[in-house]
Write a structure and sequence with these properties.
The protein is mostly beta strands. It contains no helices and 10 strands. Keywords: Ribonucleoprotein, Ribosomal protein, RNA-binding, rRNA-binding.
Length: 109
């Protein structure tokens, strides 16, 4: 099958980490990496990079940045019920496919 993978989690969603060192923490998805089945979440799974001085980073030193988390370790947080929830898909009357919260049946997008 050609084309891009589809995930229940997208950019700018608020998610909660289900397993791992940041379990229970939540943040906003900055980027989804489809080829590796991972997502980068704001201020979660932080790593330290030792950088040499270069043209872009003149001073160098130790930088902290977000590291990708596997998509299976994330759960979407519903905006209405503010709980981590599973996501379903349904087709509206105007033939538009949308995501919905399985707990409160609220349309997410």
């Amino acid at each position: 099958m050609k084309g891009q993978k589809s995930y229940r989690i997208k950019k700018n969603d608020t998610v909660m980490v289900v397993t791992g060192k940041d379990k229970g923490k939540s943040g906003k998805v900055l980027r989804v990496i489809y080829k590796k089945d991972r997502a980068i979440v704001e201020k979660l799974n932080m790593i330290k990079r030792h950088m040499k001085p270069s043209q872009q980073n003149r001073q160098g030193g130790i930088l902290e940045k977000e590291s990708p988390i596997h998509i299976s370790n994330l759960m979407l947080i519903c905006a209405k019920c503010t709980d981590p929830t599973r996501v379903g898909y349904k087709v509206l009357d105007d033939n538009k496919k949308v995501r919905f919260c399985k707990k409160c049946n609220e349309v997410i997008d």
